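Final report, section 2: Outcomes. Of the targets proposed, Alanine racemase is the one most frequently requested by collaborating groups, and we therefore present its record in full.
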Amino acid sequence: MNSGVQETTLEINLASLTHNYTYLKKQVQPGVKLLGVVKASAYGSSAAQLALHLEKIGVDYFAVAYSSEGVALREAGVQTPILVFHPQPINFEEIIAHNLEPSLYSLRILSLFKTLAIQNQLTSYPVHLKFNTGINRIGFATSETDEVITALNETETLKVVSVFSHLAASEDLKENAYTLKQINLFKTIASNIIKGIGYQPILHQANTSGILNYPEAHFDMVRSGIGLYGFGNESKFDKNLKPIASLKSIISQIHSLQPGDSLGYNRGFVATKLTRSATIPIGHADGIGRIYGHKKGYVIINEQRAYILGIVCMDMIMVDVTEIDCQEGDEVVIFDESYPANILAEHAGTISYELITSMATRIKRVFVEK
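The predicted structure is given below as tokens.
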């Protein structure tokens, strides 16, 4: 079946993004803010395009992992406050210059940013305090709470906009006791911080699965990236979330292989019977890793699975179309709403976020509303 697709294309459906945003907002009480996580190019799509759309429909906050991602959003015209989850001291000047808001997650980071803020004669510069309640990646320890309060009260250069933490296992209800322990610890930390600094910052701890599974963790704001972009894994939590991304390509060429003929590097596939293979212009440089070779991964052609043959090349894959009625120029679906990315990812023992965020920038991005 020929289609309008003429090259490998990642199609982003903004209508589905709007749907997911609206749905998640309905899961929280009125007045609870929603922070859109747009790190890693909004999980492999386009941070600027998606942030501008989310800004238009009312998102309250954005978050990125690194300062360079926040700078790119500002340069694209995003005005909404942007939290930088994992800032590094070398980027502090850049953060201030672009009105980004750093997460302060250690006594060292707090001290260095405070020193710079004093040197720049800043007043009430917005910062966020990240506390570790059990995921053990980054964040102040509970035992450091008093030192954090003392450091903040020594100067008027900084203003705590939010206090936050991250749930480790909110998607796994078997870990309910652990999640509740995290939530209760965060409540204690937040209470002590508010008492110590003398004012009320925004409190947030819930990620997408926290939004859906733990209303007691909604506090003043919730965060979502994967739920907004709906790459498939979310269906485990809530079927109402829609995948927004479709990765499609075309059949470039079809070959007929006789028994004994080989295909690809290192003769990674050798035909044992008459076989038809289709070559598709996408490879491991585009995010379809070599792990998907040797029939671990597949694409969809005319509603049928076509398994990847041999070794995935840098720019191409070859798939088995022996039993599929197809021709050169036909559309190939790598993933879409009907065949979400998590299904393909699970065949390689990974998750959709790793697959999506690996999508190369050379893949054309197309934005639609349908």
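The chain has twelve helices and 19 strands.
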